[in-house]
Amino acid sequence: MLKRKINTQKRLYVVLLVLGIVFVLLAIPVFWFYYPKIQTEKKSEIAFLDVGQGDAVLIQTPFRQNILIDGGPDGSVIQKLEEELSWWDRKIDLMVLTHPHDDHVAGLIDVIGKFHVAKVLYTGVTHDAPAYLEWLALIKNRHIPLVIIDRPQKIVFGSDCFFDILYPRASYLGVSAANLNNTSIVAKYFCAGQEALLTGDAEIAVEKELAESGADLSARIFKTGHHGSDTSSGEDFVRLVNPEKAIISVGADNKFGHPNLRVIKRLERMGTEVLRTDLAGTVRF
Ligand SMILES: [Zn+2]
What we know:
Elements: H1 2-40, E1 45-48, E2 57-60, E3 66-69, H2 76-84, E4 91-92, E5 94-96, H3 102-114, E6 116-117, E7 120-122, H4 130-141, E8 146-148, E9 153-158, E10 161-167, E11 186-191, E12 194-198, H5 204-213, E13 221-223, H6 235-241, E14 245-248, H7 261-269, E15 273-276, H8 277-280, E16 283-284
Parallel strand pairs: 3-5, 4-6, 5-7, 7-8, 12-13, 13-14, 14-15
Antiparallel strand pairs: 1-2, 1-16, 2-3, 9-10, 10-11, 11-12
The structure holds zinc ion.
The site of zinc ion (ZN) has 6 residues, from α3.
């Protein structure tokens, strides 16, 4: 009687073991098949981070790349990045510095300290402010690959997902520029139906050059140049961009009086919705 009970138990264990093995064998191909699909179904996301008086834009591509364009004026960018990224995601695949003013570069020093940065794009324009020099030294110490942007070009992130770099149109490497704003990298991002024009602090002189270049400037999402100042977002330029949404990255009660009311009215007259980081916080698409 006891022997039969032991045999029944043994058989039950064998059946459970076989079922377990069959389950694992079936689960492996199912996981193998669906996991890449789950990954590529992720959408493209753009976040204009609320970093006070400065610029910081995080793009997450459907291919799990994190692209950071500028880092704002201080370490506050770290908390803003952590709000957007998963807790385990500590990499910035591509860091872009549009131009070396403190309100764009200073936060990037902290980002290199706290995240794994794989690659950096910048123009190489000469500037001797401490934050910029510290950022450059840190990149060199950590052997992060640096790429000079010296002409319009395409940077591909995956199928139908890329940066169309429109400016600079000539090299600024080692050049002492009279106006650093006008050395800003200008790029149009295309991905999964999203289209955003990012102009750094480029002013009307660059806007005119871009218009004359014949480049397609139209974009549904437009980060206004130079924090909504009247040095940028000229009438002719914004007509060419013809955005649905315009983002002004700006700090509350800043000493520069940004943004300019005329720029806001100009955009609103065209039917563009204006979103300000000082009022709305981080703006996401
Ligand atoms: Zn700025």
